Amino acid sequence: MTQLKKNKWCLLSVNLFFSRDLTPFILTPFIFFICFALFPANAFALYYSGGPGYTDTFGRVVSADAMVFSSVAAQSFMPSAASTPMAQMAIAQDISVPGGGVTAASGIRIRIPSGLNMTWDGCPTTTATITGSAVTKVSTTVNCADSSKTMVISVNTPFSNGDSITVSGLSFVNFNALGSGYLGLDITNNGSLIATDPYSKEIGGFSGGTGYSAAFARAATVSLIGMSSGSAQSFLPSAASTPVSTMTIYQDTAIGGTSITAANDIRIKIPSGLNMTWNTGITSAAIGGPSMAKVAPDVTYENSGKTLVINVSADFVNGDSVTVGGLSLTNFNSMGQGYLGVEIDHAGNTTSSDTYTKEIGPYSGGTGESHSTSMNTRGDPNGIQFATPF
Prior knowledge:
Blueprint: E1 2-4, E2 9-12, E3 22-27, E4 30-35, E5 45-48, E6 54-55, E7 61-62, E8 67-71, E9 75-77, E10 84-85, E11 89-93, E12 108-111, E13 119-120, E14 125-127, E15 129-131, E16 138-145, E17 150-155, E18 164-168, E19 171-173, E20 179-181, E21 184-186, E22 195-196, E23 201-203, E24 212-213, E25 219-220, E26 225-228, E27 233-235, E28 242-243, E29 247-251, E30 266-269, E31 277-278, E32 286-288, E33 295-302, E34 307-312, E35 321-325, E36 328-330, E37 336-338, E38 341-343, E39 352-353, E40 358-360, E41 375-380, E42 383-388
Parallel strand pairs: 9-23, 27-40
Antiparallel strand pairs: 1-2, 2-42, 3-4, 4-5, 5-41, 6-7, 8-11, 10-19, 11-18, 12-17, 12-21, 13-19, 14-16, 15-18, 16-17, 20-23, 21-22, 24-25, 26-29, 28-36, 29-35, 30-34, 30-38, 31-36, 32-35, 33-34, 37-40, 38-39, 41-42
């Protein structure tokens, strides 16, 4: 094992492939819990059980307990958007740390924090997709509580250490105001959270205020235009052309300022320090969203493929939004990390930036960079490097 990045990262040499099962291993004095089955073959999640007083990158104290709770990605929702699926979530009873577990008497409750103005959809009763080693111990018929702020998963058999489930097929709705927060796990039915999702849920690509630290610890400023690609992405150096996650671009109803116009169009810019380009061979995008009629599907490129130009046919008004998909990135020439930017004035000014990172390679960060407790890992010729957020 090699220590990297001022002893913040560990590089583990791997001689054999791991099986894609729920596989624990211990690195003394640290305890890790790896759940391979949740993620693609070239990625897996790292959960740090920590110890009393350990503080993660979001300033939350992590104590040693018996539960692992994590969704696979941060999510951003537009104000007043339609019902939106929840990112898949993992719940596991850790085999490494003793403590109270999931019981039939108390069930499992996933709580939306009171300050995050959204609710679960499908209430009072809906159906979840549940898999995992403990799938027979829970019901797929789930119920809502606390004015639809809490999702209740009924448990018919107590969990044993090592049991786990993944939960998907659920959705959020009623995105009524800007905000950001973290889902919480309650297994005692007394309102106490035993674990908190390390990935944020936010409404409106939260524009915050000067100094506000978003999900990936970036300072943000108030902006009329919002953009979110829905998930962070990591690309291997020299990889083939890779689809970019669908982008949502919207004009905020709450803040006045310069708007999106047919005269200036929309430009999505790759930062100069991120060594990749748009795939300029793709000349038509998949446009969706409430204001799709105001945007043409034909796209063009500028700045040697670093800038995507989206053709706007009618001026936006506050509250308009579109989704842009079907596009790809390519020419991943060297490792780096950055955020896509939005330009609406055709004057080179970036009005807003994506709430999620795009990165090339097993990026090990830089001075002041902040990563979440759960990490995305990518294969490296010399081993596995724990480096990048999902």
